[in-house]
Design brief:
This protein has 204 residues and is an all-alpha fold. The protein has helices spanning 2-19, 29-44, 50-61, 80-89, 101-116, 124-137, 139-151, 171-194. It is 60% helix and 0% strand.
């Protein structure tokens, strides 16, 4: 319990620190904007959340197609196992190639849509929070966290102040996952909308 409280405190502190600095949208984003808009509209329709997915890519790689971490690769930071699996549910993305920016844009829009179909929430904000948490840490953990929240008397259909505060995963993983969701929905997406990217903010 103590470790969980420490993790929650770290998430809050991280969010406050991040909110204090302005979001700088990388110039490289302009290179991929049209392709992202095309893929997002094809997947979500004319009201596609383009600014939201752009914000997600910002969180993943800051629009660097050669970005690499210990576990993930490319513009959308797919792990090799997830990249290999994705064409089984989204065959239209083509053979897995996280290093190819076009593949990464097709993959992130398809994977987001796939995740959204498997979560439900009280609001659009909650549904995207669950989907983003699943993108970052796995859908199985989202289900576990929601069950844990329900058992603790929190609302399993709401993310902020409910499910986000309940998790059985390690403190470091929890901090990273919760920060990821908050940065995209409450910091980066509004910045992209303000910069003229299409979409409406999911969260107040």
């Amino acid at each position: 319990m103590k470790r969980l409280l420490v993790a929650i405190t770290l998430v809050a502190a991280s969010a406050l620190a991040a909110a204090a600095s302005p979001v700088r949208i990388p110039e490289a984003s302009a290179r991929y904007r049209f392709a992202l808009e095309r893929e997002a509209v094809a997947r979500f329709g004319l009201d596609a959340p383009i600014a939201r997915i752009a914000a997600q890519i910002h969180a993943e790689s800051t629009w660097e197609p050669t970005a690499e971490s210990a576990y993930a690769q490319g513009l959308s930071q797919f792990t090799p196992p997830t990249a290999a699996w994705l064409p089984t549910v989204c065959p239209e993305v083509g053979p897995p190639d996280p290093w190819d920016a076009g593949w990464s844009l097709r993959a992130i829009t398809c994977y987001d849509a796939w995740l959204l179909q498997r979560v439900d929430g009280a609001t659009v904000c909650d549904e995207w929070a669950f989907a983003l948490s699943g993108y970052n840490g796995g859908l199985t953990w989202v289900y576990r966290d929601r069950a844990r929240a329900s058992a603790k008397g929190a609302d399993p259909a709401r993310w902020f102040d409910h499910v986000e505060k309940q998790s059985g995963r390690g403190a470091a993983h929890m901090v990273e996952n919760r920060s990821y969701v908050a940065r995209i929905l409450r910091r980066f997406e509004p910045a992209y909308i303000a910069a003229g990217w299409p979409g409406e903010a999911a969260c107040p």
